């Protein structure tokens, strides 16, 4: 069937067409964002593989306005008998029998005579009708694919190495029957089961690995189209099904019409519903060039840089086999893993640098997955995070991979009581971004900007946060997150996944007569409340404890008068005693603890030392409570050597968790200290 091109010179607003059309798009109030304008090439090519396999390039010359004006159709000699995916700069990919072939259409013909380059041979299952509507490429050439199990994948082909980079972005996408791109990372997905077809808009920024928008719903009635195409800058073309026609254009005489739409994300408004012709047979393979139009003048995520030093405490984890693991960034910018050598001596470690880790700074964060594998994160000076996951439990870390982020802070990763990992960062605008797992041991989803929800209450303030790592501790329900604002005041919120801090943020105030200079460390105490420790500008360490009713009305309390550097660490042993560890102004490590399990009175500060003279510290000390009731701390000296101290005390043992033990004063622990050289 020949294509018929209408020749009207004006476009109608979609809202005007709603009177007689079954397709409706809700118009929303404009949002205040950076001004953007649309910029398009001379025409937007729409490529079609006909029933007989012949190739056509139809060229809409008014993609900005939707006016029904078309340049002459170009004919290609190559036969297209496969699922087509259009990329930027005239690239055409065909998918059939597991093969992905790449050609380039130069506007009038094929480069290289149409001879394809085979770029993959393991892409089976994309040539059937349901699947071919769930694969698309964006204006950068990145592929977005939804597999039969509903997993959304991102694929990028690196031409220089002939390799593919792949990421899992989301799950649960089997509710969508069409997925198309229209701009860099902009994904439009149709749910046919909602409101006779509802579109959802997503935007993924591949370099920062962030969701800039997630599942924004649009309108109803989109099921009238058998195919929805994207030409960039949120320009969409809908090809109507048999029997569906646009107002004033009966489907009986003008079947399979093409309708133009354009969405403006900066104002959340639509233009279009413009009829542009008919004859687009539902048996054709039809795609649009995704780089035909682009938005100009908008904002994209920026790299704020990271200025944190490498004097941060190591991140410590005890795994299920009883071993303690340490992770930190060394002065050379590498990511170092220290593993307890045997099950007898927690102070004996073997050191290993994660391969190809470089240009890192700040603090590292370590967490154990449900399957026992360790996940480590650290940030580069370029604000991109390095992620490294053990390939199998107890194996050496492999080469790390880019984890995106564009962070201004060091990352924090923690495992919740549901065994799902969640990661947190602060960006250059003082906002917190989160990243978590959909299921245990799965890849972490892209970064999502956090938000506060207030069910049944009035919204409270969300502060601008300082560019320092947040603290996170898993309680019996949520993950409790503590973050400092730009004035040094800590705030606390309960995190429940998917970026959602239910109930919003609560300000924790400042100690009387001073302000806090460090971030707050946190521990979950024996009664399920959270206790904090932070250093004030006066050098003293202060603590604050959550009430049993969940409130934070108590005051900050000073722990004696010794002065310190950096950020103190805090832990609660299995026996219920809370310990605080800090680096003194004399550069030695000190500890104190509650005089009774669960108590509020602290012993005087005790110098951490073994049988030899104490060793000065160049870093803060990291800590971890062990399952046997004892605990471990570690720090590094000026030579980059790690010193591990094993603390034993009868008051912190498992046996001490009895009614009689609670009334017994907890003595200061004794330490066994061992140094491991690089």
TrEMBL record:
Highest rank taxon of the organism: Bacteria
Sorted UniProt keywords: Signal
Gene3D superfamilies, sorted: Fucose-specific lectin, Tachylectin 2
InterPro entries per the UniProt record, alphabetical: Tachylectin2_sf
Endpoints of the signal sequence: 1-24
Official protein name in the record: Tachylectin
Top-level taxonomy: Bacteria, Bacillati, Actinomycetota, Actinomycetes, Pseudonocardiales
